Amino acid sequence: MLSAESRPYIDASVPVLREHGLAITKVFYKALFEAHPQLHNIFNAGNQANGSQQQSLASAVFAYAANIDNQAALAPVISRIVHKHVSLGVTAEHYPIVGHHLLASIKEVLGDAATPELIAAWAEAYGLLAQALIDEENRLYKAAGTQPGDLFDMRVVAVDQQSDQVRSFSLVPVDGQLPSFKPGQYISVAVHLPDGLRQLRQYSLSDTPDHQHLRISVKREIAGKETPAGMVSNWLHDNVVVGSVIPASKPFGDFTPDTEGDGPIVLLSAGVGITPMISALNRIAKVSPGRRVIFAHAARNASHHPHRADIAKAVALMPNLHSVTFYEDDKVDQDGATCLAGRMQLKKLPQWDVDKAKVYMCGPLPFMQTQWADLVEQGVPAHQLHREVFGPDMLDHLI
C-alpha cells in the first residue's frame, strides 16, 4: 500500500500527467533504447513508429495515478498486462531498468516541478506496481511450465486464405508437445526481419483446442497515411509456407469466452477481431451444439470477411446458432447466415435475456465503444460484458 507521505504527491500528479504524460514517455523510450538497444527485440517497433507505444505507456502511468486507490478497476488491466508481458518474456530484471529511465524522464520533462519529494513518491508507487506485476508474472510462468523468453519451434502444416487480407497458418510443435489453451487466448510469434531486428507479435488462436494443431489468422497490415505497413504481418504473408518453422510462445491471455457452459452467449466482432470468436464458436459447436449462440460480425464487405467457412460449418451443426453479418459496403445473402447492410446495430440482432447471457466483443476500439454503450443502454449489466483489447485502448475506461 502506498504510504501516507507519498499519496498527496501521486494525487497531485494526475493533472500533470494528463498534460505531460506523452512528452515524458517520448523522452523515456528514446533514453531507454539508447542505453539498452537489445530491448528493441521486446518492444513493438511498429507501435514505436506510429506513436501508440508511447501513448500506451502514458495512458498506463496516468491511469495508475488516477486509480491508485481503486484496485477493482486496476486489477483486470494488470491481469491483461501480465499475460502480455509473459508472452513477450518480460523478466523481473527489466523493471529496475524501466523505473530508472521513467523517473529520469519525469525529472527532465517537469524540470523544477519534479521535486525530490515527488520523485520519491513516484519511485515508491512504481516499486509497488512493479512488484505486483513481477509476482503475477512469476505465478503465470510457473503455471504454464515455462521460463521467461522461452519459445518453441512450430512447423506450418497448412496455409489458408481466409479473406483478401487475412491468411491463416496451422502450426504443430516440432517437439510434438501441443500446448493446451482456452478459446480467446493468443500466442506470440517471433520473426527475424531482414534488418536483423527480432520482433514478437501476438495473434489470437482461431480454432478449437480439440484439433492437433494451433491456428493463427493474420491480417496483412497495409500502410496508411499515418501508420506504417505491418512489419511482422507482411513478413508472415510473404515468407511463410507449408513446411516453414517459426518460433512461438505458449498460449496466454485472460480473454476467455465461456465455451463450456450451457447458458446463452453473444459473440460480437469486427474486422480481424473475429479470430478469438471463431475459436470460441468452433469449441461450442464441438461440446454443446444445441446451445443458444448469437454470433454477429461486421466487415467492410464479403471479400474482407474471414472464416466464412467456419461460420457456415457451425450454422449447419448448431440449430440454435443465430449468425448475423453486417457488410458496410454491400448486402449479400450467403452461407445460411443473415447478412445486413451497414454497420452493426444491436437492435437488428435477435433478442436475448440480458441478465443471463454473457457478451464478448473484439474489434477496433470505436466499434467496441459503440457496442458497449448500446448494450448498457439496452440494460445489459456491465459485469456481463467482456472485451479483448491491447495497447492504449485497454485503458480508455480509466482515463
Major sheet: size, sense and barrel closure? 6 strands, parallel
Strand order of the largest sheet: 10-9-8-7-11-12
Mean pLDDT over all positions: 90
Q: Architecture of the largest domain, according to CATH? A: Orthogonal Bundle
User: Could you tell me the strand content as a percent range?
Assistant: 15-25%
GO molecular function, one term: oxygen carrier activity
Pfam families: Globin, NAD_binding_1
Family: In the C-terminal section; belongs to the flavoprotein pyridine nucleotide cytochrome reductase family.
Protein name: nitric oxide dioxygenase
Tell me what you see in this structure.
With 399 residues, this protein is α/β, with parallel strands linked by helices. The chain has three domains: 5-144, Orthogonal Bundle (Globin-like); 152-252, Translation factors (Elongation Factor Tu (Ef-tu), domain 3, Beta Barrel); 265-389, Nucleotide-binding domain of ferredoxin-NADP reductase (FNR) module (Rossmann fold, 3-Layer(aba) Sandwich), CATH 3.40.50.80. Helices cover 40% and strands 19% of the residues. The protein contains ten helices and twelve strands. The chain has helices at residues 7-35, 45-50, 52-66, 71-88, 94-110, 116-144, 231-239, 274-287, 308-317, 365-377; strands at residues 152-161, 166-173, 186-192, 198-204, 214-219, 245-248, 265-270, 293-299, 321-327, 338-341, 358-362, 385-388. The chain has a six-stranded parallel β-sheet, with helices on both faces. Strands 5-2-1-6 form a four-stranded antiparallel β-sheet. Strand 1 and strand 2 form a beta hairpin. Helix 1 (7-35) runs antiparallel to helix 3 (52-66), helix 4 (71-88) packs across helix 6 and helix 8 (274-287) runs parallel beside helix 9. The protein is globular. The protein starts with 6 loop residues before the first helix and ends in an 11-residue tail after the last strand. The model has no long low-confidence stretch (mean pLDDT 90).
